[in-house]
Amino acid sequence: MSCKALSHLVGDTSERAMVGHGNFVFNSRDMAMHRESWAFVFGLLGNIISFGVFLAPLPTFYQIFKKKSTEGYQSLPYVVALFSAMLWIYYAFVKREAALLLITINTFGIVVESIYLTIFLVYAPRKPRLTTIKLLLLLNVFGFGAMLLSTLYLSKGAKRLAIIGWICLVFNISVFAAPLFIIRRVIKTRSVEYMPFTLSMFLTINAVMWFFYGLLLRDYYVALPNTLGFLFGIIQMVMYLMYRNATPVALDEPVKAQEANGHIVGAVKMGTIEPNHAGGGLGGVGKV
Fold it and tell me: In this structure, are residues 263 and 206 in contact, taking their beta carbons and an 8 Å threshold?
């Protein structure tokens, strides 16, 4: 083979290799954009459902406002929900990339939970009011403040994001364990009074939305807690179908406020529980 032919062959091979590499880079970018588009869709749906879940306690607070009394309702779930939203807002601002949907839903959550707590503080008796103030100072002021200062001054960059992400993940896993209380009560009472099927279904769907949002963005701090949310949501719906026509069993002990549950927003969530003295549903977010 002549030098000219050999040179032509090598050049042609190099061009093909470059074209192949270019196609690979293009396909990789195209796949990344496609993945981010789907993540946005799931995150948007998660926002819409989470908006509804955050507003679920409105009837409760309307009754509190109307009767000028908290009637035994507890403030702890709303303090926890506010803390969760604050955590995820901080995580989103540190992350920055693809964090808009986390910021929108958790900003809404902070506003709504703050309104709930304000109403509670206005109409609660002296002892529950003081307890609520202590909880807010302990968790939302000193607890969050200590976490904020330590991560700002003792870590930076990817390490800071990882620390905040792990805090959010562990906190939300602990919140998602709350359905165990209502599942236990359903089994003992053979009654689904405290576990509305519709709320459980929507919270399960919400967990699915945020799981795929986190998975597609490879944000496992968002995705992993919502696997538990989905699992507990399925368990609750199965329990509802098992016990919906069962004959209730009366218990000697009264229903504790902490055991009658309301909602959990996962996500990043975003996680909240709404117990009350009369019952309520229990779901499994998110919030992101």
Answer: no
Reported confidence tier of residue 143, pLDDT bands at 50, 70, 90: very high
Contact between residue 129 and residue 141 where contact means Cβ atoms under 8 Å apart? no
Q: CA-to-CA distance for 228 and 239, rounded, in angstroms? A: 16
Query: pLDDT (tens digit, 9 = 90+) per residue, 153-163?
Result: 988 888 999 99
Reduced to 3 states, what is the DSSP secondary structure of residue 202? helix
Q: How far apart are CA 159 and CA 178, in angstroms?
A: 30
**H/E/C letters for each residue in 124-150?**
CCHHHHHHHHHHHHHHHHHHHHHHHHH
Strand partners, 267: 286, 287
Asked whether the beta carbons of 77 and 282 are under 8 A apart, the reply is no
In this structure, what token pair is assigned to residue 283? 């779901």
Domain boundaries, the chain: 38-287
Mean pLDDT of 180-191: 81
Lowest model confidence (mean pLDDT) among 72-86, 146-160, 164-178, 209-223: 164-178
Helix (DSSP H) and strand (DSSP E) numbers for the chain: 10, 2
CA torsion, ordered 103, 105, 106, 108, to nearest 10 deg: 110
Q: One-letter amino acid identity for 133? A: I
- Convert the pLDDT of each residue in 242-268 to its tens digit: 888 888 776 655 554 434 444 444 434
Tracing tokens 């050999």 back to the chain, one arrives at 6
